[in-house]
């Protein structure tokens, strides 16, 4: 593939065709997306490539969606210096700690932790009892 594409380490190009039905409106649409990977054919057959593609969306759903919806990150007004990066890091830390604690739904877990200042500290091992 490197003879055809100016993309470092490219080994395969693949195509995924999706048929999507919106749950609320019932609207149907099709889309075609293309991907590039550095994995060779023996290391990544079509099933493996599809699994990697689906895993990409699990990251989006587990982290970015929570940051956008639960923490309303898009409307954050912090813009100076490294403030936005620091706040994103703190949000990711909170999400990760709650996930490690076994929570599935972040909003109720945040409410649960906000009712007692000691709960978040116990999650990171800074408080006892």
Question: What does this molecule look like?
Answer:
Strand 1 (12-21) and strand 2 form a beta hairpin. The protein is 44% helix and 16% strand. It has helices spanning 46-69, 83-100, 106-114, 118-123; strands spanning 12-21, 28-37. The N and C termini lie far apart (59 Å). The chain has 129 residues and is an alpha+beta fold. A two-stranded antiparallel sheet has the order 1-2. The protein has 4 helices and 2 strands.
Short recap of the structure:
By secondary structure, the chain is of the alpha+beta class.
Measured on Cα atoms, how large is the radius of gyration?
20 Å
Query: Which structural class should the secondary elements be placed in?
Result: alpha+beta
Mean pLDDT over all positions: 86
Proportion of strand residues: 15-25%
Reported for the largest beta sheet, the result is:
2 strands, antiparallel
- Biggest sheet strand line-up: 1-2
The residue ranges in which pLDDT falls below 50 over 5 or more consecutive positions are none
Would you list the SSEs in sequence order as H and E? EEHHHH
Helix content: 40-55%
Separate helix tally: 4
Number of strands: 2
What sort of overall outline do the alpha carbons produce when their principal axes are compared?
A: elongated
Terminus-to-terminus distance:
59 Å
